[in-house]
Specification:
The protein is mainly α. Helix content is 86%, strand content 0%. It is built from 2 helices and no strands. Helix 1 packs antiparallel against helix 2. The mean pLDDT is 91.
Length: 65
């Protein structure tokens, strides 16, 4: 499997996970503030990871030109 394929699959997984966590937050599935903060922290970490993967993919594409 090529690196680009792995990155695409990871980004797809991250997007799905972020969406699921966002639905949990917006649908009122939080019983307390600690769970809310934990899920928001997960979303932030996943978004940062997604951005780094996108940057890596762009860097690879630019170097191939």
């Amino acid at each position: 499997m090529q690196l680009e394929d792995v990155i695409k699959k990871l980004i797809r997984f991250i997007n799905t996970r972020i969406e699921a966590l966002s639905i949990t937050v917006t649908s009122g599935g939080m019983d307390n503030m600690e769970k809310y903060q934990y899920i928001i922290g997960q979303i932030n970490a996943l978004e940062a990871t997604r951005q780094e993967l996108s940057n890596l993919r762009e860097y690879k594409e630019q170097n191939e030109k």
